[in-house]
Design goal:
Layout (H helix, E strand, L loop, with lengths): L1 H15 L11 H16 L26 H6 L10 H17 L1 H20 L21 H36 L1 H24 L9 H10 L2 H15 L3 H33 L3 H20 L7 H15 L8 H9 L19 H34 L4 H40 L14 H23 L3 H12 L4 H10 L7 H30 L6 H17 L15 E3 L14 E3 L1
Length: 598
């Protein structure tokens, strides 16, 4: 009898440890370390992320299941200049944003110049009096609906090439950043942008030798390296690694503020540089220099946010998932299929345990599509706006740069001040309300996804909708600028959306979540320009304001989706109902996930 029990015990233990396929000799030591860690994780009866087995009074369990704040213990023994922090990443990200924003307006005007030049040469091949456009100057011969439509369509082709490729690359980059670190992926992304700018410089210098369609090659390289959307997602993953839940909204707001400040200062500096040098190419030289500085800083100065233990753990989890395949003759083919499975990152949206609250899963899906609409419009509407300013009001490159800078400076101010003021007012009111009245719902204070996040999201979408309605109604450049300033307040919604989504997934899937968000952003980067540029190309000669009406309708749809999002009370990854401590919680005093089990 004893031998039978012993035999069954050994059989159960053997089933708990998956077999690891044989590796090549030169990788044996590394694979052995990962295999040993995978066995330890597999043999544990409970997942460490669930925080099971902790006492009722242990308030160190955060909403994602990890200890609160577990990374404080991991970084406690590291010297301060090697400790990851959002403040390390903000300055180089600002440089990266300046490089991206600085070439935004010059690139569109360069496309307009090259397209106009090609159109005039093909239409009047033997005209001796043909006046070709001059780069960096106003060219009235290019301000006709036909050339505007051709420029918008070619910009659409470039955007589609970048967007489609980066849509498939971004999730993989997000998953790889979980295993190999955030900084390596950021370096690859910046290298792609640098190479793309170098190709544009060659095309601008030699327009008679190189066909302007080679611009598609720059878009191809940028998309293969993930493009800007993947870089933005990885920086959010970096902030998530070194920021607790109750500070993520502020941290994401800082990154969005740094983004808009960089995009604001970049076009302004580029406009001054172009005006001084009288050449669009100078803006691209400056962008190449900024990308190089960003790569050096990220590679050699900034500390990695994921510790070696965290990366080894994520690699071990990857090995466990890979070893779930059956040991058959086609297992190697299945392994190869998994490596090129671009749909796998979206499993993060279907692995949520909804037994305690089905609202969490509904919220995640709604927030996912709301963020896709808002971010897609933010990334795509700039093209038609710049072309509209050039066509409707005949603004020069420098004037367009000043307009772009003014809008993004307003976005920067909105991101820095409005969320912080809202949190101060909300926390002050909540503390006063708790101390002067009895409310049976007061235990829900700041636990999970609260009403403050919802209010910021809905208000931001509403302001941005009003801005595009103002664009359509404006009949002068001054009214157009006022509408843009009003719509820029809507930028407060985007960081809150990303922060809210990270509260709905486990800690070790945040990189995968943000990578999946980058995937959908890339899809919207293709779909939004496709329809917007097509609408503008068709209506530019009749009713060019139609594109802004379409944008307002899309944001109205996002606002309706936000009405389906509900507050979430309690922590993630547990089937036991949670409530928050009755003491008022503020973002500077306690974590939003410091909950006690009833």
């Amino acid at each position: 009898m004893t031998q039978d029990v012993f035999r069954e015990t050994m059989t159960i233990k053997s089933k708990q440890v998956p077999s690891v396929p044989q590796t090549s000799p030169f990788k044996e030591n590394k694979k052995k370390q990962i295999r040993d860690r995978a066995k330890k994780l597999q043999e544990s009866e409970t997942t460490p992320l669930l925080c099971e087995g902790r006492s009722e009074n242990d308030d160190t369990c955060d909403g994602a299941g990890a200890t609160d704040w577990e990374d404080d213990q991991n970084f406690a023994e590291i010297v301060w200049w090697k400790t990851p922090s959002v403040y390390w990443m903000l300055p180089p990200f600002f440089i990266y944003a300046m490089a991206v924003g600085g070439v935004l307006v010059p690139k569109l005007n360069l496309i307009l110049y090259l397209t106009c030049r090609n159109y005039l040469i093909n239409k009047f091949p033997s005209d001796p009096n043909l006046k070709l456009p001059v780069i960096s100057e106003k060219n009235p011969q290019c301000q006709i609906p036909e050339i505007q439509a051709l420029s918008v369509k070619f910009t659409l082709y470039m955007t589609m090439v970048t967007g489609i490729i980066s849509a498939f690359i971004s999730p993989k980059l997000g998953a790889w950043s979980d295993q190999y670190g955030r900084l390596r992926i950021l370096t690859i992304i910046s290298l792609g942008a640098l190479t793309a700018d170098l190709i544009i410089i060659l095309l601008a210098i030699f327009p008679n030798t190189l066909d302007y369609r080679w611009l598609l090659l720059s878009s191809l390289i940028d998309g293969v390296c993930g493009s800007f959307t993947a870089g933005f997602a990885i920086t959010h993953a970096y902030a998530t690694d070194c920021t607790p839940h109750f500070k993520r909204a502020v941290a994401f707001g800082y990154f969005h503020a740094s983004l808009f400040l960089g995009i604001a200062i970049g076009p302004l500096l580029a406009a001054l540089l172009v005006k001084h040098t009288r050449s669009l190419v100078s803006a691209f030289y400056a962008a190449v220099s900024l990308h190089f500085i960003f790569m050096v800083v990220v590679s050699f100065i900034i500390p990695e946010s994921l510790t070696k233990a965290s990366r080894s753990k994520n690699q071990a989890n990857h090995v466990i998932e890979a070893n779930k395949l059956p040991e058959t003759l086609i297992s190697k083919l299945n392994m190869l299929r998994q490596k090129f499975d671009f749909i796998s990152p979206f499993r993060v949206f279907f692995n949520i345990d909804c037994s305690s609250s089905g609202d969490r899963h509904i919220n995640l899906i709604c927030l996912f599509f709301i963020d896709a609409i808002v971010t897609g419009i933010t990334l795509s509407a700039t093209t038609v706006t710049i072309y509209y300013l050039s066509y409707q009001y005949s603004l020069s490159t420098a004037e367009q740069g000043v307009f772009t800078s003014a809008i993004n400076i307003c976005r920067f101010c909105a991101l820095v001040f409005i969320p912080r003021v809202c949190h101060i007012i909300f926390n002050t009111y909540w503390a006063y309300f708790q101390s002067h009245s009895f409310n049976p719902l007061k235990q829900q204070s700041n636990c999970g996804f609260d009403s403050l996040d919802l209010s910021i999201i809905r208000s931001g979408i509403l302001f941005e909708t009003l801005g595009y309605i103002g664009f359509a109604a404006a009949r002068s450049s001054s009214n157009f600028v006022i509408a843009g300033l009003v719509g820029s307040i809507g930028s407060i919604a985007s960081p809150t959306l990303k922060c809210a989504m990270t509260k709905h997934v486990p800690y070790d899937q945040v990189g995968q979540l943000l990578g999946s968000m980058g995937f959908l952003h890339s899809l919207m980067r293709v779909l939004c320009p496709f329809f917007l540029n097509l609408i503008y190309a068709v209506t530019v000669g009749k009713f060019p304001q139609a594109v802004f009406i379409v944008l307002a309708c899309c944001l109205g749809t996002a606002f309706l989706l936000s009405l389906s999002v509900k507050k979430i009370v309690g922590s993630l990854n547990t089937n036991i109902v949670h409530s928050c401590d009755q003491q008022p919680l503020s973002h500077s005093e306690a974590s939003v996930d410091d909950c006690l089990t009833k």
